[in-house]
Design a protein that fits this description.
The protein has ten helices and five strands, in the order E-H-H-E-H-H-E-H-H-E-H-E-H-H-H. It is an alpha/beta fold and about 170 residues long. The chain folds into two domains: about 110 residues, 5'-nuclease (Rossmann fold, 3-Layer(aba) Sandwich); about 50 residues, no CATH class. Strands 3-2-1-4-5 form a five-stranded parallel sheet. Strand 4, helix 7 and strand 5 form a beta-alpha-beta unit. The radius of gyration is 16 Å and the shape is globular.
Length: about 170
């Protein structure tokens, strides 16, 4: 099974929209570096995130980054993104869950496959683990930023998939 490493953002937003349970259903265990745990535990995090992280489930494991990389491109990222990328790099064949565009770009540059919150929701919808329109509506009620064009495309794809399943 693919090793899955998460940055803060996908975990945060899946918690805020009540869909965190799709992570273990899609991926089994999810690893985070201590820096991501610190960001999720920050006093400024939403109360539901703080409560969840205090009682975090067994499928969420913390793993230390063993490598040091002083690449200037990494210095442009926040500590959680930087550590998640390095952790994904040290785990062969890892999938990185990350939303930040600069972080995803750096992961791609390093040959690390990645997906973000929308990709996770899309994968869960394909497996019929959630209702995509409802999840996207809930996500829009947070401070998650995404182009309306992408939302329209995801909803159109979801509608076409449901029609195909009905026929």
């Amino acid at each position: 099974m693919t090793v899955v490493i998460a940055d803060t953002s996908p975990v945060n937003y899946l918690l805020l929209i009540g869909e965190i349970a799709i992570l273990p259903r899609l991926y089994g265990q999810v690893l985070i570096p201590p820096e991501v745990l610190a960001e999720l535990s920050d006093a400024d995090a939403p109360p539901e995130v703080l409560q969840w992280v205090r009682l975090r489930p067994a499928w969420l494991q913390t793993r230390q980054v063993r490598t040091v990389d002083d690449d200037p491109a990494l210095r442009q990222l926040d500590p959680g993104e930087r550590a998640a990328i390095l952790l994904a790099q040290q785990e062969a064949g890892a999938l990185l869950l990350i939303d930040d565009a600069a972080g995803r770009s750096e992961a791609t540059r390093r040959g690390i496959p990645s997906t973000g919150t929308l990709g996770i929701l899309r994968a869960a919808a394909i497996r019929q683990l959630l209702d995509l329109p409802t999840s996207l509506k809930n996500l829009a009620a947070t401070n998650f930023r995404v182009s309306q064009r992408l939302i329209v495309e995801l909803l159109a794809e979801d509608t076409a998939r449901k029609r195909h399943l009905e026929s």
